[in-house]
């Protein structure tokens, strides 16, 4: 593995040539910046104009500048063109991942703006790639790179120290979040679970005052970032709190404090991933029937290839239904975009998927999804649209549906606030091995 940070990326990206009728991008320079520009180049004094008694310089933008609407897209096109010139082929299902065969082994590049993460079986291949990137983009300042088995990338610590496993850690992020939270916890204070059985209830109490409302909104956003990366175990709680950020009440605040206390108790937890077979994808999909105050159901889904959850879905269903079987059907439909995309993505990476397994614990739902159009029945049009889409994917061979006992259904964790032994069991399989 090798991670890289390309400095001054936008400034190294030229603005595109203007087409007919297109306007130049003009920047208005005011205040101290006018004097700085004159100090750097006295000829700028000839271009100073006065507006309301203040000096102003108007300049034409020649390079992408951070903050411009089109700057990120221009940089992306720049980097993509460079990689394609170098022989990389982009994954059609993720435009920020590219691959190239070197010495009969795949060199894979992932990037987010100017942060690059590269992998290959041979270290020298990565060194050669780094040299090329530095020659291309290191003119103003040298490209920085990290070698070895531990990398800081996009707020995460990616640890490849254990063979066949990747650990995603965010302890520093958690520590900063806890230090900023207005409620302080004692060192030995413990919270066993992130939410109580009242999580899905709307709750009571007065609306939060403006200052506490802003704190609530800010920390739910921080927790959402955490839950999508290293702490999938808090996903169900964060999902519900995120639906309350527009008008949180005192009950919602208490739920946030409980979640933060749980984070304090488990701040060393991280996500451990490994794959038994890169050609076998396993999806666990479940639904809790009519658990919301408006009697809508809740979908949960977890995807794994071995140890730990690679993806997790937890969301309120948009459609009211009249049975747990129909709730399960809607849940499968909710997860289907991710299920199909994951297969296409992996195959584009060079791993033909032999099995794309969808596990459910509701046998009636499985019968509906596998019996084809003969089971259409008298359901509503909205339900039939979802039903036929799922059955078509089964008939096309894009997924196979198998029964999984409820006690082994990982996705049950994502549908409601579990407690006790069941919570600990599913948290362990979703988060993977803990040091």
From TrEMBL:
<dbReference type="Pfam" id="PF07727">
    <property type="entry name" value="RVT_2"/>
</dbReference>
<keyword id="KW-0472">Membrane</keyword>
<feature type="transmembrane region" description="Helical">
    <location>
        <begin position="56"/>
        <end position="76"/>
    </location>
</feature>
<dbReference type="InterPro" id="IPR013103">
    <property type="entry name" value="RVT_2"/>
</dbReference>
<keyword id="KW-0812">Transmembrane</keyword>
<feature type="domain" description="Reverse transcriptase Ty1/copia-type">
    <location>
        <begin position="64"/>
        <end position="183"/>
    </location>
</feature>
<protein>
    <recommendedName>
        <fullName>Reverse transcriptase Ty1/copia-type domain-containing protein</fullName>
    </recommendedName>
</protein>
<keyword id="KW-1133">Transmembrane helix</keyword>
């Amino acid at each position: 593995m090798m991670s890289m940070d390309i400095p001054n990326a936008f400034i190294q990206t030229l603005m595109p040539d203007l087409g007919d009728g297109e306007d130049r991008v003009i920047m208005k320079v005011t205040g101290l910046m006018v004097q700085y520009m004159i100090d750097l180049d006295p000829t700028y004094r000839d271009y100073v104009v006065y507006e309301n008694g203040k000096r102003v310089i108007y300049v034409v933008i020649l390079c992408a500048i951070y903050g411009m609407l089109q700057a990120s897209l221009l940089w992306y096109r720049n980097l993509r063109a460079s990689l394609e010139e170098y022989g990389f082929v982009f994954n059609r299902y993720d435009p920020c991942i590219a691959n190239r065969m070197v010495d009969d082994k795949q060199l894979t590049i992932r990037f987010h703006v100017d942060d690059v993460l590269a992998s290959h079986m041979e270290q020298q291949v990565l060194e050669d790639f780094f040299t090329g990137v530095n020659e291309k983009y290191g003119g103003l300042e040298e490209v920085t790179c990290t070698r070895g088995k531990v990398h800081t990338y996009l707020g995460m610590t990616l640890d490849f120290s254990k063979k066949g496993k990747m650990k995603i850690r965010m302890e520093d992020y958690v520590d900063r979040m806890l230090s900023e939270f207005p409620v302080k916890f004692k060192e030995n204070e413990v919270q066993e679970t992130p939410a109580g059985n009242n999580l899905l209830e709307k709750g009571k109490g007065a609306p939060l005052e403006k200052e506490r409302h802003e704190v609530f909104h800010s920390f739910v956003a921080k927790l959402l970032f955490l839950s999508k990366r290293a702490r999938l175990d808090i996903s169900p709680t964060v999902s519900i709190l995120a639906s309350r950020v527009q008008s949180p009440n005192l009950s919602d605040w208490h739920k946030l404090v409980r979640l933060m206390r749980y984070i304090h108790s488990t701040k060393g937890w991280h996500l451990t991933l490994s794959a038994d077979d890169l050609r076998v994808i396993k999806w666990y999909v479940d639904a809790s029937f009519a658990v919301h105050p408006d009697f809508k159901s809740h979908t949960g889904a977890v995807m794994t290839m071995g140890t730990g959850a690679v993806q997790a879905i937890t969301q309120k269903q948009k459609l009211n239904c009249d049975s747990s079987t129909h709730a399960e059907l809607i849940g499968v439909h909710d997860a289907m975009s991710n299920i199909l995309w994951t297969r296409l993505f992996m195959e584009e990476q060079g791993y033909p998927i032999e099995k794309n397994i969808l596990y459910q614990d509701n046998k009636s739902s499985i019968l509906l999804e596998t019996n084809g159009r003969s089971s259409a029945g008298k359901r509503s049009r909205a339900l039939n649209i979802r039903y036929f889409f799922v059955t078509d994917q089964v008939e096309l061979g894009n997924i196979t549906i198998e029964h999984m006992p409820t006690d082994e259904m990982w996705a049950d964790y994502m549908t409601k606030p579990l407690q006790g032994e069941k919570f600990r069991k599913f948290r362990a399989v979703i988060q993977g091995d803990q040091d």
